[in-house]
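Lab meeting minutes (informal)
Scribe: AK
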Amino acid sequence: MGTATEAAQRPAEGQAEADQAGYVRYPARAPIVDGDCLLRGFELHLRELPVAEGDEADVRKATDAAAAHLLAALGASDVRTALSGHPGYLNVSRPLLFSDAIARLKPDRFFLEISPTIGVDPELTARLVTLHARRYRFVIDDLRQPDEAFAKLLPYAHAIKIDPARHDPELLQRLSKALKSAGKLLIALNVETHEAFERAKSLHFDLFQGFFFARGSKQSARRINAPRQALINLLRLLSSDPSVAQLEAELKLNPVLVMHLMRLANSGEASIGRKVATLRDAINATGTNRIARWTQLLLYADGRKVPLEEDPLVQLAATRARFMEIASSRLAATSRKVVDGAFLTGVFSLVDAVFGDTLENTLEALTLASHIRAAILHREGQLGTLLSAIESLERGDWEALDRASAALAPLTSCDLAQIAITAAAWASTADQSKENEGLERIEE
C-alpha cells in the first residue's frame, strides 16, 4: 500500500473545465448492500448542473456541454474501478435525462434514478420509452406518495427506493407486497441503525442504502475473536516503533498472523529472485509501514470468506484512509509522518463498528496520538477537516464539501471529489493487486 501516485497527485484531463463550469465533476460514492450486508451497488451522487442563462438554444447548448463533461467522468477508469463490478445508481435530472450525452452511459453498468417529482408529461414518457428500448434501467427514487405520477413511471421502473421511516407501517406493508408481486426490486433508503435494517428486512426489502453497518453498537459489532485481539496487540506494538526482534516475538504468538505475513512478503517486490523463508526475512522484506496498514485493514474483516470488494465496512475504511493519505500529501508542508498519520486517522475513524464500544474508549485502547484522536472525535485540525470532507462526499453533501475545501487550500471541491474516487478505486482493488496480496480474511 504505497504513497499517492503521481497520477493521483495531478489534476485529471478536463479538470480545469470542470472548475470553470462551477460544479464538481466527479461523483461521490455511497454503498448499497443486500440482506447479508454484502455490497451490491453504489449510489453515485452528482452535483447539480449549473443553471445556464440566455435564449433557449444557448441554454440547451450549455446544458449539453456540461452534461457531456459530467457523464464523461463516469466513464473514467477510476470510476469504473471504484464500482468494483457493481452497478452504479445514478440520480438524473430532467436536463440530464434529455441530453444526448446520456448515450455515454453503458446501460449494463448504471441504473438511472428518477424522482417522482420530475414532471411526468408526454415528452418525458416518450423519452423513457426510447431509453427503455435501448435497455436503460430506471429506479424511482425516494417514493413519498403512490400517486398518479408514480403510476405513470412504474411500468418503466426496475426498482423502487423508499424511506421506511417516512411511511405508515401498515401502508408500507401493503405497498411493499403490491410492488413485490409486480416484480419490482425494493431498496430501503436512509438505513442508519441496525434496528432500521432489521425492520426493512422484515418488510421484504431487497437492498439497503445507509451506513448502519459502520455504526458502533454491541448489537451490530463484529465479533472480537482471538486473531482480532492479536491484531490489536500488534497494532499497539507497531505504534511504538518496535525493533525487528520485538515484532518477530509478537507475531510468533499467533501462527495465523505469521501465515498472512509470509504470504504478504512473498507477494511483494522485495521477494523477487528469492523466496522469503523466515519470519525475520518476511518482516524485513515487507517493512513495518506496510505491515501496519495490512494489519489495520485486517482488523475490519469479520471472518466471512468473501472478497474485500464486497465488504462495505472494509471498503469504507480503506477509502477513507487512502483519501486522507492522498489529500494530505497534496497540502503544503506535509511530511511522511503527517501522511502516515492521515492514513491512520481515516482507517480508525470507523473502529467503533468493530468493537461495539464507544469511539472514545476504543481509540484510547489503541493508544493513538492525541491529535489523531482529536481529529476523529472532534474533527479538530487539518486531519479533522479532511475527515469532514470525505464524510461529506459519502453523503453527497456538496455544501459541506465546499466548507471543508475552503480550509484546505489549494485543494478545491473538485480536487477532493477526484481524490475520493481515486481512493475508492484503490480500495476496490486492494484484494486483487499484486501490491496487496496477503490481505486475506482472518480465519476464525
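Next up, CB showed the second protein from the same session:
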Amino acid sequence: MGWTDRETVALIGGGHTLGRTHGNCNLTGTKWAQDPYNNIGPYFEATPGSLRGPTDGTCGTGTEAGRGNNTVSSGFEGPWTRSPSRWNYDFFDALMSEEWVPAKSPYGNDQWHTRDRSSKFAKTMRLTADVSLIADQTYLHLVEEYAADHAKFDSDFANAWFKLVHRSEDHPHQDDLEKDAGFCTSFEFLTAQQEFLP
C-alpha cells in the first residue's frame, strides 16, 4: 500500500493508543503449552465453536472459562496507555520518558514494562515492535515529533487511517475503493461527539 515512515509510526501509535492486549491465563505446565489451544478451533478456540480459550479448567471454570481475566488471545497482556478506551498521547509520551525493560506476560510471551515500577506508566506495557520505534533513528525522529506535537500526531493519524480504510490490494490508489463502492465512510460525526466528552 506504499506506507511512508510517517504513516507507519502514526498508525502504530494510534492503533496502540486505544485498546489493550489480552493474555492473562498462564498456560505453563499445561497441555496447551505443548499443543497451543489457538491451533485447535477456527477462531483460536480450545473447544471449537465455543468462541473462547481453554474451557477445560485451565483458564477459569464455568461461564468464566476462557473469558475475561481468563482470556488467552495474543498471549501478551496489558494496555499501552493509562486510558485505553479514550484517545490520548501516552503511547509516544511514555516511549520517550520511560526506560523500557524486558518482561514476561502471564502467558510467558516477551513484552516490556517500565524500569521504574512506581512510574505513572507502570501499569502499561509495550511490545518489542513498539520499543523498536525508538531504536531506529528515522522512527525515533517521528516519535519525538509526535510526543512534542500532539496536533501533528492527530492530523497524521487521521490521514493514515483514512488511507488504511480506503485502500486495499485491489484498490491501491487514492479514491479507488470509494469509486468502486460508490460511497466513502465519513468520520465528521466524531468531531461533534468530542465536544461532549469530559
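CB comment: The first helix runs from residue 5 to 15.
No objections, moving on.
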